[in-house]
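pls design
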């Protein structure tokens, strides 16, 4: 099963991208948010991939800018009535953190903004995602919890937030964090990740 792709952006379509990895082109289905973060054609990118197979479509790859988005995509499909298209739609309008907040507030209007998600399905998503963990230790807290106090950000997430706070563009910050995590490993500290990312950025 493919979990991550690192290669050159060969094509960008309305719903997918073609990633050239060592001369092999992988068609990866992506949401609009992820497609918008891809670098220009010919430049290198890293996509976190969820591989799925069905009799109707065969093997299909779904790509995401970060691990949290990929994990949330999987969690969303655990909700009855939510398939890959609806899950991508939710992630196009809400980040994993924003989804957690929407669930905590029982804000079905925010979830219902996603393509393919009506009011009934939005309500079901909120009900079924209460207290379910996703990547990075983030907990979709129940409405009685105090503003998600137990939520933990990974070192990568903290590094990303720091880069964004320094004015680095979202797509660039995510690409830098992915690159330094790949180079330093998941056990690297926030400080090490930020230092390495800023060095790559030339600051």
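designed seq:
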């Amino acid at each position: 099963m493919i979990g991550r792709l690192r290669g050159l952006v060969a094509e960008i379509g309305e719903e997918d991208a073609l990633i050239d990895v060592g001369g092999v082109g992988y068609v990866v289905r992506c949401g609009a948010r992820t497609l918008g973060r891809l670098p220009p054609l010919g430049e290198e990118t890293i996509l976190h991939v969820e591989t799925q197979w069905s009799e109707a479509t065969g093997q299909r790859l779904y790509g995401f800018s970060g691990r949290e988005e990929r994990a949330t995509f999987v969690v969303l499909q655990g909700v009855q009535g939510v398939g890959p298209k609806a899950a991508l739609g939710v992630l196009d309008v809400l980040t994993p953190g924003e989804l957690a907040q929407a669930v905590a507030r029982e804000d079905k209007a925010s979830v219902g903004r996603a393509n393919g998600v009506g009011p009934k399905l939005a309500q079901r998503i909120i009900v079924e995602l209460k207290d379910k963990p996703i990547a990075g230790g983030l907990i979709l807290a129940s409405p009685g919890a105090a503003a998600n106090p137990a939520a933990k950000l990974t070192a990568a997430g903290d590094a990303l937030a720091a880069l964004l706070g320094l004015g680095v563009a979202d797509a660039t910050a995510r690409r830098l964090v992915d690159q330094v995590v790949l180079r330093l490993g998941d056990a690297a500290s926030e400080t090490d990740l930020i230092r390495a990312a800023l060095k790559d950025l030339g600051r």
